TrEMBL record:
Physiological role: Catalyzes the conversion of 2 pyruvate molecules into acetolactate in the first common step of the biosynthetic pathway of the branched-amino acids such as leucine, isoleucine, and valine.
GO cellular component terms listed in the entry, alphabetical order: cytosol
Pathway as given in its UniProt record: Amino-acid biosynthesis; L-valine biosynthesis; L-valine from pyruvate: step 1/4; Amino-acid biosynthesis; L-isoleucine biosynthesis; L-isoleucine from 2-oxobutanoate: step 1/4
Domain ACT: 25-100
Protein's name according to its UniProt entry: Acetolactate synthase small subunit
InterPro entries named in the record: Acetalactate_synth_ssu (IPR004789), Acetolactate_synth/TF_NikR_C (IPR027271), Acetolactate_synth_ssu_C (IPR019455), ACT-like_dom_sf (IPR045865), ACT_dom (IPR002912), AHAS_ACT (IPR039557), AHAS_small-like_ACT (IPR054480)
SUPFAM superfamilies documented for this protein: ACT-like
Length: 190
């Protein structure tokens, strides 16, 4: 006889068993005014979601519109809820899940680029190897001395990750990354 008591099922804790977290790139067009970014980000922190990358810039000066690009990871149904809630914030004009629109486009996912500035200190063979690898990755030297280099590299986030990991044993000192800038493929605008 089984005497264990099962707690009542709550709708708040029901998630499909086979659902896995997914990386999503969201593009949010907003009015460029104080407090908008805090409201948008508050939706993510309120649900306990981390933002892996965040870029914000005014894109249409005459209309005072800014684009917020957010890369996050979560369960698809929760991301859909976040998108719906973002759409209801008054200064938000449009929310597009660039990752989802990729399924409809024959060329694949969104175009994503990131800029990084990477400082590497080294001498002798390590210095020569750092320069050789930077050339392979198409990183530009933007500052140098006899003891260090500062490289500028652009590309997909995975390319930046690989470059940084390769530079680590060669004398990596510091890294600064901009975050992902992304657009959907095709002729349609956001």
């Amino acid at each position: 006889m089984n005497t264990s008591v099962q707690p009542p099922a709550s709708a708040y804790f029901i998630t499909p068993e086979k659902e896995e977290t997914q990386a999503r790139t969201l593009s949010v067009l907003v009015d460029n005014e104080p407090g908008v970014l805090a409201r948008v980000i508050g939706l993510f922190s309120g649900r306990g979601y981390n933002i892996e990358s965040l870029t914000v810039s005014e894109t249409e000066h005459e209309k005072h519109l800014s684009r917020i690009t957010i890369v996050t990871r979560g369960f698809p149904h929760v991301i859909e809820q976040l998108k719906s809630q973002l759409d209801r914030i008054v200064p938000v004009h449009r929310v597009v899940d660039l990752t989802q629109t990729a399924h409809d486009h024959p060329e694949g996912g969104p175009i994503e680029r990131e800029l990084a500035i990477v400082k590497v200190a080294g001498q002798g063979d390590k210095r020569v190897e750092a320069l050789r690898l930077a050339d392979i990755f198409r990183a530009k030297v933007v500052d140098s001395s006899i003891e260090h280099f500062v490289f500028e590299i652009t590309g997909k986030p995975t390319k930046i990750d690989r470059f940084v990991s390769i530079m680590a044993p060669l004398g990596l000192v510091e890294v600064c990354r901009t975050g992902v800038a992304a657009l959907s493929r095709g002729k349609e605008a956001m």
